[in-house]
Amino acid sequence: MANVAVVGTQWGDEGKGKVVDLYTEKADIVARFQGGNNAGHTLVVKGRKTILHLIPSGILHDNKICVIGNGVVFDPLVFLQEIEELQQGSLLPPNTKLFVSEKSHLIMPYHRSIDQAREARTSGKKIGTTGRGIGPAYEDKVARTGIRVGDLYEEDLFREKLRQNLEEKNFLLTNYYKDKPLDEEEIATQYLAYGQKIKPYVADTSLILDYEIKQGKKILFEGAQGSHLDIDHGTYPYVTSSNTVSANASCGSGIGPNTISTVVGICKAYTTRVGEGPFPTELKDDIGNHMQQVGQEFGATTGRKRRCGWLDMVLVRQAVRVSGITALAITKLDVLTGLDKLKICVGYESARGQFTYAAPASMRVLSACQPIYEELDGWKEDILYAREMNELPANARKYLKRLEELAEAKIVLVSVGAGREETIILEDPFHNKAP
Ligand code: GDP
Ligand code: IMO
Ligand code: MG
Questions:
Q1: From the CB of 18, is ligand 1 less than 6 Å away?
Q2: DSSP conformational letter for 242
C-alpha cells in the first residue's frame, strides 16, 4: 500500500502546495484532512500562479479525485468562489472529481465575526489569526454544537441548530465584543442556497477513500499549516486549532493509520512565521530582509509579510518525531543564494539548560532561548536550473547534507524555484525508489 502524507515541518508556508502538485502525478487521489481556508497553497505551473485555500492542490491534474475530508472546517462560499476562479481560468480538468465530506464542519458567519472581534480586542496578546473563523468553528465542533455540511439537507434541523447557535453567539458578539448581531434568516437563506450549490460534491468521503484503496489506488494526503502550528505539539497558544501532524491524515479523512506508508516533511531551507509567537532564529536585519524579499515571503492568504530567520533544526527534529517523517523535501534553497555565510540552529541555550530535540513547552522559556548556531559557507551560483544534485554548488550540497544529518531523515526532493519543474527529485515517495 503506497499512500503518502505531506506535512509542514515548521510554521506553515513551507511549499506544501508546490510539492503536492508535483506528487499528484504519481497519485490517484489528493485529500485535505484538516484546517480550512486559513491555508494558502501556491502552485506555479508554466509560469502561472494559482493559490488554493480549500481545494486540494491536486486539482490542476486530470483524472484525479480531490477530497476535502471530515477533519477540514469548510466555508462553502470560499469553496464556490474557488471553483469559479478555477473555471474562469480554464484550470478545472474535465475528468477530475471533487468531493467534500458530509461530516465537515461548516464555518459560519459568526465564526468569522468572533475570530475577528477577539483579535481586535486582545491587542498585545493576539494570536495573529487569519480571521477566517477557523478557531471558533473547531471550538463548536468540540463543544458538539457545530453545524456540518450534511445538516444543510435537513432544513428543519439546520434552522434549529442555527437558531440555538445564534442565540449564544449574538449574545457574545453584542454584549461582550460590542459588535453587531447577525441575522438568522439571512444566514439560513444564504447557507441553504450554498447547500444546493455544493450538493453534487457532498459525499461520504471515508467510503470513497476506502473503496479506492481497495482498488489499489494511491492517496496523497495534503497537510495544511505546519508542525509548530499544531494544537497539541505546536507553540501553544500561538497555533492553529487543528492537529496538523501526519496522524490526523487518518482521523481527518476516515481511513486507518496503517494505510499511510510514507510521511514526507516539507522543510523550507530557512524559517518563516506569519502571526504572533516566539521565533528563536528570527532575523530583523539585512539577512532577514534578503529572505523576505528574495523569497517573496508574503502570506498567501492574508498578504501579511512573513517573519524570516535561519533554519531551526530543533523545530525540524521535533516535527520529524511527532509526524514520523522519513523523507524530507527541502524548498526554497535558491533563496539562500548570494549569502556569504549560512547558519543552522542546532539547539537552544536557556537558563533551563539546552534544548536540541524539542522546543520547550513554555512560551516564556522559548522566548528567552538563544539559538546555538553552526556556520557554513554560502554559494553565489544561480541554482534555478539545477535538476540533479551534482548540478548544485558544493556548498549547497554541504548545507543539505548537514540538514539531513541533523534531521535524521533523508532528503527526497530539493526545490530550487517556485515552478513545478524547478525541482531536483531524488526519490518517488510512492515507490521508495528513483522514479
Ligand atoms: P504552502 O502553504 O506550504 O503551500 O506554501 P505557500 O504557497 O504559502 O508559500 C510558499 C511560497 O514559496 C509560494 O509563493 C511558492 O510559490 C514559493 N515556492 C515554493 N517552492 C519554492 C522554491 O523552491 N523557490 C522559490 N523561490 N519559491 C518557492
Ligand atoms: P498553510 O497551509 C502559515 C497561522 C496564522 C496564525 C495562527 C492561527 O498555507 O501553510 P488561524 O487563522 O489558523 O486560527 O491562525 O496560524 N496560520 C498559518 N501560517 N501558513 C498557514 O497555512 C497558516 N494557517 C494559519 O498566521 O499565526
Ligand atoms: Mg501557505
A1: yes
A2: S
Q: How far apart are CA 131 and CA 116, in angstroms?
A: 5
- Report whether 206 contacts 70 (CB < 8 A): yes
Give the residues surrounding ligand 2 with Cβ less than 6 Å away.
8, 11-13, 38-41, 127-130, 132, 134-135, 224-226, 229, 240-241, 274-275, 300
Q: Residue 296 C-alpha to ligand 3 middle, in angstroms?
A: 12
- Residue-level pLDDT at 432: 55
Give the pLDDT confidence of 153-191 residue by residue, as tens digits.
999 999 999 999 999 999 999 999 999 999 999 999 999
**12's torsion region: left (phi>0), alpha (psi -120 to 50) or beta?**
left
Same domain, 71 and 132: no
The overall average pLDDT reported for the chain is 96
Measuring CA to CA, how many Å separate 181 from each of 71, 174, 184, 208?
29, 6, 9, 40
Q: Is 408 left (phi over 0), alpha (psi -120 to 50) or beta?
A: left
Q: What is the pLDDT of residue 301?
A: 84
C-alpha cell at 14: 513551507
Q: Of 200, 231, 266, which marks where a domain is finished?
A: 200
Name the domain count of the chain: 2
pLDDT tens digits for range 247-261 = 999 999 999 999 999
pTM of the model: 0.97
Asked about 140 being catalytic, the answer comes back as no
The side-by-side arrangement of strands in the sheet containing 423-425 is 202-203, 97-101, 65-68, 29-32, 219-222, 4-8, 262-268, 327-331, 410-415, 423-425
End position of a domain, from candidates 155, 181, 200: 200
What residues make up the domain containing 176? 105-200
State yes or no: is 61 an active-site residue.
no
- As a whole number of angstroms, the distance between CA 248 and CA 232 comes to 12
Using CA positions, which residue lies closest to atom 11 of ligand 1?
A: 15
- Which of 42, 302, 411, 414 gets mutated to test ligand 1 (max ligand atoms within 8 A of its CB)? 42
Return the CATH number at 151.
1.10.300.10
Residue of 21, 28, 41, 75 marked catalytic: 41
pLDDT for residue 162: 98
Separation of 382 CA from ligand 1 center, angstroms? 18
Whether 170 and 261 map to the same domain: the answer is no
Is residue 268 lining ligand 1, measured as CB closer than 6 Å? no
CATH number for the domain including 63? Answer: 3.40.440.10
